[in-house]
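Input (structure):
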């Protein structure tokens, strides 16, 4: 049970970060959204540097996830049944550890993707505002 408790705590941290990113995106469209383009541009600029760092990490996470999923799907059901029948707990725990790590990787990747979605959403808002501003000037 200790392993599950630690797994839950590790996963919860990723999920809190993911929720914060999703809340940031939602906040762009509700209530007192960022009032002007200058504030949005400043926020976007701060995110660009962060995304360079995140991009490399996301690529690494995607590869880890891909390799892990391949390992898990390559495990034939008979092997798993054999481990259970022979009470080979070391192999069963190793498999559980690997799957827990993959869950953490997937949650971290989701968080990085949400931050990227936030950056792209801000870019879209700025682009739309620019298009509307030009259209309004043209229509005057």
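Output (sequence):
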């Amino acid at each position: 049970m200790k392993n599950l408790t630690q797994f839950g705590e590790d996963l919860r941290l990723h999920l809190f970060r993911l929720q914060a990113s999703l809340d940031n995106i939602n906040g762009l469209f509700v209530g007192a959204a960022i009032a002007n383009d200058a504030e949005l541009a400043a926020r976007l600029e701060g995110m660009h540097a962060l995304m360079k760092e995140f991009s490399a990490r996301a690529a690494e996470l995607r590869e880890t996830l891909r390799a892990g999923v391949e390992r898990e799907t390559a495990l034939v059901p008979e092997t798993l049944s054999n481990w259970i029948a022979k009470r080979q707990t070391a192999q069963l725990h190793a498999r559980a550890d690997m799957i827990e790590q993959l869950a953490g990787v997937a949650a971290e990747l989701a968080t990085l993707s949400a931050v990227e979605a936030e950056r792209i959403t801000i870019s879209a808002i700025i682009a739309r505002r620019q298009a509307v501003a030009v259209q309004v000037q043209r229509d005057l």
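Notes: The chain has four helices and no strands. The CA atoms of residues 4 and 116 lie 30 Å apart.
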